[in-house]
Design a protein that fits this description.
The chain has ten helices and 13 strands. The chain is of the alpha/beta class and 322 residues long. β6 and β7 (101-106) form a beta hairpin. α6 crosses α7, α8 packs antiparallel against α9 and α9 crosses α10. It is globular and about 50 Å long. The N and C termini lie far apart (39 Å).
Length: 322
Protein backbone atom coordinates (compact mmCIF):
# COMPACT_ATOMS: atom_id res chain seq x y z
CA UNK A 1 0.00 0.00 0.00
CA UNK A 2 1.39 3.38 -1.03
CA UNK A 3 0.67 6.58 0.88
CA UNK A 4 -0.80 8.38 -2.14
CA UNK A 5 -2.94 7.34 -5.05
CA UNK A 6 -1.77 10.24 -7.22
CA UNK A 7 1.03 12.78 -6.97
CA UNK A 8 1.07 15.66 -9.44
CA UNK A 9 3.71 18.23 -10.33
CA UNK A 10 3.06 21.54 -12.01
CA UNK A 11 1.49 24.96 -11.83
CA UNK A 12 -0.60 26.34 -8.99
CA UNK A 13 -1.94 29.80 -9.75
CA UNK A 14 -4.81 32.23 -9.50
CA UNK A 15 -7.42 32.15 -12.28
CA UNK A 16 -9.15 35.53 -12.49
CA UNK A 17 -12.53 34.76 -14.06
CA UNK A 18 -15.28 37.16 -15.07
CA UNK A 19 -18.19 37.40 -12.66
CA UNK A 20 -20.52 40.10 -13.95
CA UNK A 21 -20.18 43.87 -14.18
CA UNK A 22 -19.83 46.57 -11.55
CA UNK A 23 -22.25 49.48 -11.22
CA UNK A 24 -19.86 51.44 -13.41
CA UNK A 25 -20.00 48.75 -16.10
CA UNK A 26 -16.52 47.39 -15.41
CA UNK A 27 -15.93 43.62 -15.41
CA UNK A 28 -15.71 42.08 -11.94
CA UNK A 29 -12.95 39.49 -11.69
CA UNK A 30 -13.08 36.65 -9.17
CA UNK A 31 -9.82 35.19 -7.85
CA UNK A 32 -10.22 31.41 -8.18
CA UNK A 33 -7.60 28.88 -7.09
CA UNK A 34 -6.38 27.22 -10.28
CA UNK A 35 -3.75 25.24 -12.08
CA UNK A 36 -4.54 22.02 -13.92
CA UNK A 37 -2.58 19.56 -11.72
CA UNK A 38 -4.23 20.73 -8.49
CA UNK A 39 -7.65 20.75 -10.14
CA UNK A 40 -7.08 17.09 -10.99
CA UNK A 41 -6.04 16.33 -7.41
CA UNK A 42 -9.01 18.20 -5.94
CA UNK A 43 -11.42 16.08 -7.99
CA UNK A 44 -9.62 12.89 -7.00
CA UNK A 45 -9.96 13.94 -3.35
CA UNK A 46 -13.72 14.29 -3.87
CA UNK A 47 -13.71 10.71 -5.13
CA UNK A 48 -12.00 9.46 -1.97
CA UNK A 49 -8.44 9.24 -3.25
CA UNK A 50 -5.26 10.36 -1.46
CA UNK A 51 -3.14 12.91 -3.31
CA UNK A 52 0.01 15.01 -3.04
CA UNK A 53 1.20 18.09 -4.93
CA UNK A 54 4.70 19.16 -5.97
CA UNK A 55 5.13 22.78 -7.01
CA UNK A 56 5.96 26.36 -6.07
CA UNK A 57 4.02 29.53 -5.30
CA UNK A 58 5.11 32.98 -4.22
CA UNK A 59 5.46 33.76 -0.52
CA UNK A 60 2.71 36.34 -0.96
CA UNK A 61 -1.00 36.76 -0.28
CA UNK A 62 -2.08 34.68 -3.28
CA UNK A 63 0.47 31.94 -2.58
CA UNK A 64 -0.69 31.57 1.00
CA UNK A 65 -4.31 31.54 -0.15
CA UNK A 66 -3.55 28.79 -2.66
CA UNK A 67 -1.70 26.69 -0.10
CA UNK A 68 -4.66 26.90 2.26
CA UNK A 69 -7.20 26.01 -0.44
CA UNK A 70 -5.23 23.05 -1.78
CA UNK A 71 -4.66 21.66 1.70
CA UNK A 72 -8.32 22.11 2.59
CA UNK A 73 -9.28 20.22 -0.58
CA UNK A 74 -7.47 17.22 0.90
CA UNK A 75 -4.15 17.30 -0.95
CA UNK A 76 -0.86 16.85 0.90
CA UNK A 77 1.23 20.01 0.36
CA UNK A 78 4.47 19.11 2.11
CA UNK A 79 6.24 19.48 -1.24
CA UNK A 80 4.69 22.87 -1.98
CA UNK A 81 7.57 25.35 -1.94
CA UNK A 82 7.31 29.11 -1.29
CA UNK A 83 9.46 31.55 -3.29
CA UNK A 84 10.48 34.72 -1.43
CA UNK A 85 11.49 36.61 -4.59
CA UNK A 86 9.03 35.67 -7.35
CA UNK A 87 5.30 36.24 -7.09
CA UNK A 88 2.53 33.69 -7.58
CA UNK A 89 1.51 33.23 -11.22
CA UNK A 90 -1.74 34.90 -12.30
CA UNK A 91 -3.99 33.93 -15.21
CA UNK A 92 -6.84 36.04 -16.58
CA UNK A 93 -9.55 33.96 -18.23
CA UNK A 94 -11.88 35.50 -20.81
CA UNK A 95 -14.91 33.38 -21.69
CA UNK A 96 -16.12 33.61 -25.28
CA UNK A 97 -19.83 33.45 -26.23
CA UNK A 98 -19.46 29.76 -27.20
CA UNK A 99 -17.99 28.91 -23.76
CA UNK A 100 -14.41 28.56 -24.98
CA UNK A 101 -11.68 30.59 -23.29
CA UNK A 102 -8.79 32.94 -23.91
CA UNK A 103 -5.95 33.15 -21.38
CA UNK A 104 -3.62 36.00 -20.46
CA UNK A 105 -0.79 35.10 -18.09
CA UNK A 106 1.29 37.18 -15.70
CA UNK A 107 4.24 34.79 -15.56
CA UNK A 108 7.46 36.45 -16.62
CA UNK A 109 8.54 35.02 -14.32
CA UNK A 110 5.97 33.36 -12.08
CA UNK A 111 6.72 31.31 -8.99
CA UNK A 112 5.57 28.01 -10.55
CA UNK A 113 8.40 28.37 -13.10
CA UNK A 114 11.02 28.53 -10.35
CA UNK A 115 10.75 24.97 -8.97
CA UNK A 116 14.20 23.39 -8.86
CA UNK A 117 15.25 19.76 -9.23
CA UNK A 118 16.67 19.70 -5.68
CA UNK A 119 13.33 20.88 -4.29
CA UNK A 120 11.47 17.79 -5.57
CA UNK A 121 10.91 15.32 -2.72
CA UNK A 122 11.63 11.83 -4.05
CA UNK A 123 9.65 10.10 -1.32
CA UNK A 124 6.42 11.83 -2.38
CA UNK A 125 6.70 10.34 -5.88
CA UNK A 126 7.93 6.94 -4.70
CA UNK A 127 4.94 6.76 -2.34
CA UNK A 128 2.41 7.25 -5.18
CA UNK A 129 0.61 4.83 -7.48
CA UNK A 130 0.27 7.37 -10.30
CA UNK A 131 2.43 10.38 -11.16
CA UNK A 132 0.68 13.10 -13.19
CA UNK A 133 2.12 16.09 -15.04
CA UNK A 134 1.49 18.54 -17.88
CA UNK A 135 3.63 20.81 -20.03
CA UNK A 136 3.36 24.14 -18.20
CA UNK A 137 6.16 22.81 -16.00
CA UNK A 138 8.34 22.38 -19.11
CA UNK A 139 8.15 25.88 -20.59
CA UNK A 140 11.42 26.98 -18.94
CA UNK A 141 14.73 25.25 -18.32
CA UNK A 142 14.85 25.09 -14.50
CA UNK A 143 11.36 23.74 -13.88
CA UNK A 144 11.74 21.49 -16.95
CA UNK A 145 14.74 19.86 -15.28
CA UNK A 146 12.69 19.37 -12.10
CA UNK A 147 9.84 17.84 -14.10
CA UNK A 148 12.07 15.40 -15.96
CA UNK A 149 13.77 14.42 -12.72
CA UNK A 150 10.36 13.69 -11.17
CA UNK A 151 9.28 11.64 -14.19
CA UNK A 152 12.40 9.51 -14.00
CA UNK A 153 11.82 8.87 -10.28
CA UNK A 154 8.25 7.83 -11.11
CA UNK A 155 9.39 5.45 -13.84
CA UNK A 156 12.04 3.87 -11.62
CA UNK A 157 9.53 3.51 -8.79
CA UNK A 158 6.98 1.64 -10.89
CA UNK A 159 4.39 4.41 -10.91
CA UNK A 160 1.93 4.69 -13.74
CA UNK A 161 2.67 8.00 -15.48
CA UNK A 162 -0.21 10.22 -16.58
CA UNK A 163 0.22 13.17 -18.96
CA UNK A 164 -2.03 16.01 -20.09
CA UNK A 165 -0.33 18.36 -22.60
CA UNK A 166 -2.65 21.24 -21.64
CA UNK A 167 -1.24 23.43 -24.41
CA UNK A 168 -1.28 27.15 -23.57
CA UNK A 169 0.31 28.78 -26.62
CA UNK A 170 1.05 32.23 -25.05
CA UNK A 171 3.40 30.62 -22.52
CA UNK A 172 5.83 29.22 -25.09
CA UNK A 173 8.67 31.08 -26.77
CA UNK A 174 7.85 29.08 -29.90
CA UNK A 175 5.33 26.45 -30.91
CA UNK A 176 8.23 24.32 -32.14
CA UNK A 177 9.50 24.15 -28.56
CA UNK A 178 5.99 23.35 -27.30
CA UNK A 179 5.80 20.45 -29.74
CA UNK A 180 9.20 19.17 -28.61
CA UNK A 181 8.21 19.18 -24.95
CA UNK A 182 4.82 17.57 -25.61
CA UNK A 183 6.60 14.86 -27.58
CA UNK A 184 8.83 14.23 -24.56
CA UNK A 185 5.75 13.81 -22.37
CA UNK A 186 4.20 11.43 -24.88
CA UNK A 187 7.36 9.33 -24.79
CA UNK A 188 7.12 8.88 -21.01
CA UNK A 189 3.45 8.34 -20.22
CA UNK A 190 1.23 5.28 -19.75
CA UNK A 191 -2.00 7.30 -19.71
CA UNK A 192 -2.59 10.26 -22.03
CA UNK A 193 -5.44 12.75 -21.88
CA UNK A 194 -5.26 14.96 -24.95
CA UNK A 195 -7.75 17.42 -26.43
CA UNK A 196 -8.90 17.48 -30.03
CA UNK A 197 -6.93 20.64 -30.86
CA UNK A 198 -3.79 19.13 -29.28
CA UNK A 199 -4.12 16.00 -31.41
CA UNK A 200 -4.30 18.22 -34.47
CA UNK A 201 -1.33 20.28 -33.23
CA UNK A 202 0.85 17.18 -32.79
CA UNK A 203 -0.23 15.12 -35.80
CA UNK A 204 -1.53 17.60 -38.38
CA UNK A 205 -4.84 15.79 -38.79
CA UNK A 206 -8.38 16.57 -37.60
CA UNK A 207 -9.24 12.88 -37.97
CA UNK A 208 -8.79 12.15 -34.28
CA UNK A 209 -8.85 8.39 -34.64
CA UNK A 210 -6.08 8.64 -37.22
CA UNK A 211 -4.22 11.08 -34.96
CA UNK A 212 -4.54 8.79 -31.93
CA UNK A 213 -3.26 5.88 -34.03
CA UNK A 214 -0.26 7.96 -35.09
CA UNK A 215 0.50 8.79 -31.45
CA UNK A 216 0.10 5.16 -30.37
CA UNK A 217 2.37 3.98 -33.18
CA UNK A 218 5.05 6.56 -32.38
CA UNK A 219 5.03 6.33 -28.59
CA UNK A 220 3.36 3.05 -27.60
CA UNK A 221 1.03 4.66 -25.03
CA UNK A 222 -1.25 1.97 -23.56
CA UNK A 223 -4.30 4.17 -22.85
CA UNK A 224 -5.26 7.36 -24.70
CA UNK A 225 -8.24 9.62 -24.03
CA UNK A 226 -9.20 12.26 -26.58
CA UNK A 227 -11.57 14.95 -25.32
CA UNK A 228 -13.79 16.48 -27.98
CA UNK A 229 -15.53 19.31 -26.11
CA UNK A 230 -19.19 19.44 -27.09
CA UNK A 231 -18.75 16.19 -29.03
CA UNK A 232 -17.88 14.01 -26.01
CA UNK A 233 -14.77 11.89 -25.69
CA UNK A 234 -13.02 8.77 -27.00
CA UNK A 235 -10.75 6.12 -25.54
CA UNK A 236 -8.13 4.16 -27.48
CA UNK A 237 -6.81 1.00 -25.85
CA UNK A 238 -5.15 -1.93 -27.62
CA UNK A 239 -7.47 -2.57 -30.59
CA UNK A 240 -10.47 -0.87 -28.96
CA UNK A 241 -11.96 2.51 -29.81
CA UNK A 242 -14.86 3.69 -27.64
CA UNK A 243 -16.76 6.97 -28.00
CA UNK A 244 -19.28 8.39 -25.52
CA UNK A 245 -21.50 11.41 -26.09
CA UNK A 246 -21.30 14.46 -23.80
CA UNK A 247 -23.73 15.56 -21.12
CA UNK A 248 -24.57 19.00 -22.53
CA UNK A 249 -26.15 21.42 -20.07
CA UNK A 250 -28.25 24.49 -20.76
CA UNK A 251 -26.80 26.24 -17.70
CA UNK A 252 -23.13 25.95 -18.71
CA UNK A 253 -21.16 29.02 -17.57
CA UNK A 254 -17.60 28.26 -18.64
CA UNK A 255 -15.36 25.29 -19.41
CA UNK A 256 -12.55 26.02 -16.93
CA UNK A 257 -11.61 22.76 -15.20
CA UNK A 258 -13.65 20.49 -17.48
CA UNK A 259 -10.60 18.69 -18.85
CA UNK A 260 -9.07 18.41 -15.39
CA UNK A 261 -12.28 16.93 -13.98
CA UNK A 262 -12.39 14.45 -16.87
CA UNK A 263 -8.76 13.52 -16.22
CA UNK A 264 -9.38 12.92 -12.51
CA UNK A 265 -12.44 10.77 -13.17
CA UNK A 266 -10.45 8.70 -15.68
CA UNK A 267 -7.56 8.22 -13.23
CA UNK A 268 -10.06 7.27 -10.53
CA UNK A 269 -11.34 4.45 -12.75
CA UNK A 270 -7.81 3.26 -13.52
CA UNK A 271 -6.98 3.25 -9.81
CA UNK A 272 -10.05 1.10 -9.16
CA UNK A 273 -9.71 -1.29 -12.11
CA UNK A 274 -6.09 -1.19 -13.27
CA UNK A 275 -4.85 -0.67 -16.82
CA UNK A 276 -4.03 -4.19 -18.03
CA UNK A 277 -7.34 -5.81 -18.94
CA UNK A 278 -9.86 -3.10 -19.73
CA UNK A 279 -12.88 -4.10 -21.83
CA UNK A 280 -15.07 -2.09 -24.17
CA UNK A 281 -17.71 -1.88 -21.43
CA UNK A 282 -15.08 -0.70 -18.92
CA UNK A 283 -14.05 2.10 -21.24
CA UNK A 284 -17.66 3.07 -21.86
CA UNK A 285 -18.30 3.30 -18.12
CA UNK A 286 -15.11 5.30 -17.61
CA UNK A 287 -15.93 7.81 -20.36
CA UNK A 288 -19.55 8.17 -19.23
CA UNK A 289 -18.48 8.95 -15.67
CA UNK A 290 -15.73 11.33 -16.82
CA UNK A 291 -18.01 13.14 -19.29
CA UNK A 292 -20.65 13.61 -16.59
CA UNK A 293 -18.13 14.99 -14.11
CA UNK A 294 -16.75 17.39 -16.71
CA UNK A 295 -20.27 18.50 -17.59
CA UNK A 296 -21.11 19.42 -14.01
CA UNK A 297 -18.02 21.58 -13.53
CA UNK A 298 -18.99 23.69 -16.58
CA UNK A 299 -22.04 24.91 -14.62
CA UNK A 300 -19.86 26.36 -11.83
CA UNK A 301 -17.37 29.23 -11.65
CA UNK A 302 -13.82 28.15 -10.98
CA UNK A 303 -12.79 24.55 -10.51
CA UNK A 304 -10.69 23.53 -7.53
CA UNK A 305 -13.21 24.65 -4.88
CA UNK A 306 -16.35 23.37 -6.60
CA UNK A 307 -15.57 19.87 -7.87
CA UNK A 308 -18.61 17.57 -8.02
CA UNK A 309 -19.13 14.62 -5.71
CA UNK A 310 -19.46 11.05 -6.94
CA UNK A 311 -23.13 11.15 -5.92
CA UNK A 312 -23.76 14.20 -8.13
CA UNK A 313 -22.08 12.50 -11.07
CA UNK A 314 -24.04 9.27 -10.60
CA UNK A 315 -27.26 11.26 -10.33
CA UNK A 316 -26.64 13.06 -13.63
CA UNK A 317 -25.88 9.75 -15.36
CA UNK A 318 -29.08 8.21 -13.93
CA UNK A 319 -31.17 11.20 -15.04
CA UNK A 320 -29.91 10.97 -18.61
CA UNK A 321 -30.54 7.23 -18.69
CA UNK A 322 -34.25 7.64 -17.87
Amino acid sequence: MKAYDVAALGELLIDFTENGLSEQGNPILEANPGGAPCNVLAMLNRLGKKTAFIGKVGNDTFGKMLAKEVEQSGTDIKNLVFDDKVHTTLAFVHTKPDGDRDFSFYRNPGADMMLKKEEVMEEVIKSSRIFHFGTLSSTHEGVREATRYAIEIAKRSGCLVSFDPNLREPLWDSLKEAKTQIAYGLSKCDILKISDNEVEFMTGTSDYTKGAAMIQESYGIPLIFVTLGREGSRAYYKDLEVEVQPFLQSNTIETTGAGDTFEACALHYVLEHGIKNLTQEDLKQLLTFANAGASIITTRRGALRVMPSEEEIRQLIAERAE
